[in-house]
Every structure is written in structure tokens, then in C-alpha cells.
Model the fold of this input.
Amino acid sequence: MSDIKACLFDLDGVIVDTAVYHYRAWKRLANELGFDFTEEENEKLKGVSRVRSLELILEWAGITKTEEERAELAARKNSWYVDMISSMQPEEVLPGAREFLEEVRAAGMKTALGSASKNSGLILERTGLLSLFDAIVDGNSVTASKPDPQVFLKGAEALNTAPHQCVVFEDAVAGIEAAKAGGMKVVGVGSPEILHDADLVVKGLYELSTDLLYHL
Done:
């Protein structure tokens, strides 16, 4: 039986799905710049920082902008995105996520968010999940992106829990790598073919129970 004392969750694709809002905001920006932006291209931006996402979009469009112009475009995209997520509702939480968080806490485990999003606090507040987290480590408090383990190590530190006593829940390969690099157990949420390095892979948190965590 493993000694799991804390659960660290990625946000997007695990607890909520904000990809549609990112897509709409990037598409609006692309359209204003005179080109289109597809859902396939949007898939390539998952887990990628806002600055790098903009760089990729401009590369695909063959457009060159100064650093100052890029900063303005990224800020414009983010303001549209924040407007959209400000209207998020509790029913937008992914199936089973709220119930699993409640079960984890009822079992006496601590919970933290480990996300690249700089808007995670707002999203948790709008979806009614904020009270289910003991700590939030997000894009506002980390300097290195996944697969660097910094976000999860900071989460473990915030919970005063050793890395080997933590289990991470992730939907991206970079996140799986980050958890492993941090010496943590990891549950992949998504496709077993893609997330094969995880200790366990599920389609969603609705497939999980705390009993399963003790056998990782």
C-alpha cells in the first residue's frame, strides 16, 4: 500500500476544459490579422505558454511582429479569454471531477492545483471549486514550464508533503514527465496510447476512487 498523502491536479483537461475558450480567442486574433486558425492548429498549443503560442501562430501565418507588438497581441488575446472564462459556470466542471475532489478530501488527503494557467484562481472561483483546494500553484508563481517539475514540487512544498507521497493528475505528456521528474506517482487522464508513461491512465476522474490511489 502506497503512502499517498496529497493529490496535485492539472487544471485544463483534467478538472475543466477551457480549450474552446483559448481557441475562440486565438481564432479572433488570427482573423483580425487577416488569416484563419484551425482546431487542428489549436491542438498543437495545448500546454504551451501564451507567448510561445503566439509565436507559433505568427509562424504558421508567415507574419513577423516586433517584440512590443507581440506583447500587445498576447495581452489582447488574454483579455478576450478572461472575459469568456469570467462567465464560466459550475456545470462546466468535467464529469466526476468535483466528486473525486470531495472524496479525496474526505479521505484526509491534501489537494493542490499545479497549472500553467495564470487565470486558474478565477476559473476555480467561477466553477465553485476554489474551496476544494488547499493550495494553488500556477503560472503566476512558477518560472519553468512542464516538463520541468517545478510546478508540482512547489505544490508538494505548499502542502508540506514529500514528493513521493504525492500523486499527480495530468492530461499532457509534458505533465506526466514533470510529475515523474519530481519523484511523484502520476495518473494520466486521456488516451493510454499517448499517456503510456503514467502509472495509471483513465478517461476521466469519474473512473477514479481513492482506493485505486493506494495501489499505485
